[in-house]
Every structure is written in structure tokens, then in C-alpha cells.
């Protein structure tokens, strides 16, 4: 069924604005501090920016040290077990702080909270938590915080299924040059290992007008780069009546003044259309980088994963991408140790890495997620085997990444300057259109500008060089 109206009604948004005013009153205009800790993907980062925006309007500023916070939020992820373990560690550590400062509000939200067994666990083992909410009602945070400030009980509000999309909520972005723009929520694909469709609901696309308005505003506010986010951006618009396709959306966004670069993630190989590749080629601002997760190189494992493509199909696609858009960087995600993965299956993955020649691969050890079909398999791979395969994969991929980077030596590349480098603080850092990190000497006034850098040193993860020209 297509949706003609996808937004949360304006009265609902106004109601939240009232709660923003009420929380401000409770705090008597005294400036308070917040801390938002984010786990997981960029979509969670973007959600946290919205939480920060609402907190800012309620009179809170970001705490330098979590200990001085009046409100602490953990925006959680459950895609792999280690993301969850980290959250429990942080929550445990806060018990003492909460007993010293009982007025502090500790909130937990995000993907983990969409699972009832996790909410139960937190309720019984982490009783110092004041507020629990899920992924579908983030926009109601002012109301929930208001209730938590007025109650001694733990406030719990988790919606089982998705609602409409809330527009025009406040936002406090982390960066002033690059911005995340979520264009769709949820996922319909149900890859057999993945928890995301269960915790993020079905696909819902934002109305193109809302996205165009947001990006135009970013352009006016001196943002230079946007990254469009969705679990599978290739199916953007399919749920909307008279909606644009993703390629159509890119063409509209390409016209927006001020924005110099457009990126997006993630694309599912089964939905990568020729129309999209043509749009990538034609739109000047769309960068030459495609993140196209393969997950495994074995057709048998891909079938078990419910990915709906074969090894051969993926390789043909990779070839087409590289032919259509010369010099494009191709990156991927790979899971090692999916249930039933044999040495032969793993060799197929290595073979694909050698053939597709990814610029970079994000590699994960398979993690059993309760509620997903793969978790029920009796053919789980041992941790030891997973680790051995992981290391082998990394070794092959690192060699290829370095070989690809070597081709940059002596070339001049366009870099968007982001700020000082964390690893070498006397150098500036930025990225090429192909998403390679470049470090170079330069003055702070270059931040936010596009510059040309001639590459004179190459490493596996980054490039180095000297500025030869400055634009915009
Ligand atoms: N929607 C995106 C990304 C989803 S999560 C996509 O389809 O590409 C990001 C990555 O986490 C996935 O690409 C996958 O490689 C990995 N992942 C998801 N579930 C996992 C699990 N149970 N164990 C290990 N890695 C997993
Ligand atoms: Fe998970 Fe697959 Fe959806 Fe990506 S496409 S979020 S891996 S179910
Ligand atoms: Fe994690 Fe949720 Fe993103 S499970 S990867 S934070 S969609």
C-alpha cells in the first residue's frame, strides 16, 4: 500500500513544543547539562543530533564530562552482541553517579529497546534508569523527559510498530561542514542474520519536499557535504504515492546551491538500478564512491542469508559500476562465520575480494541475534574459526587497499578540509570524493574549503600530500 500522507500531524509536533517550554519552566531557566552517548550506525548518530536539538531547546548544553550531566542518554544499537555489551558496561558504571546525584535523569533509547527481553533486563538489573524509549517515538522525547522529571518511577514508552515520520523537529548537528540526512527509515529485506527490520520497522520514505528543504537549509548554512542515509536507499520512494525514485531525488539535490558533495549509504546490490548509476554519473555533486555490501562471496551462503543475489551477479554489478563511473571507489561489508560457512564458502569470499578489488571492507564476525532465523541454525561456526577467517580476510583486504592507494601517488585530488587530524594534530585532514582520508599541512582558515592536494605518501588507511590550490 502506498502512503499519501507520511508526516506526524502538526498538532502532535506543537504538543511537543509545549513540553519543551514546560521542561524549561521546571528548570527555572537554569542552564543544565546533557550528555548523549551514541552506539551503532549513522542513522543513530542522526537521531542523537535530534535528541541534542530538543535538549538544547529545553535549556540544556552539552556536558564536557559525563559526570556533570543532568540528563544522560544512551542511544543504543543491537546489530551485534558487542554493541550491547558496551551499553550494559556504561549503565553499570553510572549506578554510583546516580546515587550521588539522584536528580540526574538516565535515559536509554534506540534499537536495543525495541526488544522486550532487553527492556525487562534493564528494568530488573539497572534500576537507576529513569526513562526507556524506542526508535519509533523519538519525537516525543520532550514529553517523556517531562514525565521522567516529574516521576520517581521508571518511564517506559516503546512502540511496537512504526508510526509516521516527524518533520520540523529541532536538531543540533555535531559537525558544521558535513551533515547526515536520513531519507528513509526501516528495512523490508529481512536478511536472515539481521535484527534491524525487527527494531526499525518497515521502510518509510520521507517526502521529497522535506528532504529538499532540509538540504537547501544546510546549503544556506554553509554545509558543504551531505550523506543521505537509509538501510537501503535504492528503494527510496517506492512506498510513496507520486514519489521520486532515489535517482530522481539525487537529481533534485544536485541542484541545491552551497552543497558541494553528495554521498549516500547503504545500497543493497539486488536493488542497484541502471537509473541510479546513470544519475551518479550525471550529477556533478554525487561523489565517486559506492558502499555496496556483499556480506559473503559464496552463493550458497548468500541464499541462506536471504540476500537475493549470487556471487556472479555481484561481480557483474561491480564491473558495471566501475565501467559506468571511472575512478569510483567501491567499499563493502562482509560477515565471516555465518552459520554453515565452510572453508570452501570462505574461499569464495576471498575470491570475490580479489576480483572486486574493494577500496575498503568493513568486516564483522557473525553475531547471533535472538529472533532472527540464522540464530536458530545448529551449524554455528566456532569463535576460533571466525577469528582465523577474519584475520585472513583482513590481511588480503589490507594488501588490496594499499595497492589501490598506491595508485594515488603523484596524483592531485580534491579534498574537503574537515579540521585538524586526530592522529597528527599539526596537520589538517579531509577526504577525497572517493572517501579517502588525506592529511596535509595547512592553516586553520582552510577548514570548510575545497582544496587540491598532491599526494606524496601513501598508507593503507590514509594518504598524505601538499596543498596546491584552494577553491571556494
Ligand atoms: N542496511 C545496511 C547495513 C545494516 S547493518 C546493509 O544492508 O548493508 C551494517 C552491517 O552490519 C551489515 O552490512 C552487516 O555486514 C553487519 N551485520 C548485520 N547483522 C550482523 C550480525 N548478526 N552479525 C555480524 N554482522 C552483522
Ligand atoms: Fe539488515 Fe539486510 Fe536490512 Fe541491511 S538490508 S538492514 S543487512 S536486513
Ligand atoms: Fe544498530 Fe540500529 Fe543502526 S541496530 S546498526 S543502530 S539501525
Overview of the molecule:
With 472 residues, the protein is α/β, with parallel strands linked by helices. Among the domains are: 10-157, 3-Layer(aba) Sandwich (Rossmann fold), CATH 3.40.50; 412-470, OB fold (Dihydrolipoamide Acetyltransferase, E2P) (Beta Barrel), CATH 2.40.50.140. Helices cover 35% and strands 21% of the residues. The protein contains 13 helices and 19 strands. The strands form five sheets. The chain has a six-stranded parallel β-sheet, with helices on both faces. Residues 40-41, 43-44, 77-79, 111, 195-196, 199-200 line the site of FE3-S4 cluster.
Question: What brief labels describe this structure?
Answer:
binds FE3-S4 cluster; Rossmann fold; five-stranded mixed β-barrel; six-stranded parallel beta sheet; OB fold (Dihydrolipoamide Acetyltransferase, E2P); binds S-adenosyl-L-homocysteine; 472 residues; binds iron/sulfur cluster
Q: Give the CATH level 1 class of the domain at 10-157.
A: Alpha Beta
User: Which percent range describes the beta-strand content?
Assistant: 15-25%
Distance between the termini: 45 Å
Shape field? globular
Rounded mean pLDDT is 96
The helicity comes to: 25-40%
Known CATH architecture of the domain at 10-157: 3-Layer(aba) Sandwich
| CATH superfamily (homologous) name of the domain at 10-157 | Methylthiotransferase, N-terminal domain
Rg from Cα: 23 Å
* Ligands (ions, cofactors included): S-adenosyl-L-homocysteine, iron/sulfur cluster, FE3-S4 cluster
Residue ranges: pLDDT <50 for 5 or more in a row?
none
Find the CATH topology of the domain at 10-157: Rossmann fold
The main β sheet shows up as:
6 strands, parallel
Strand order of the largest sheet: 2-1-3-4-5-6
Please state the structural category. Answer: alpha/beta
Number of strands: 19
Total helix count?
13
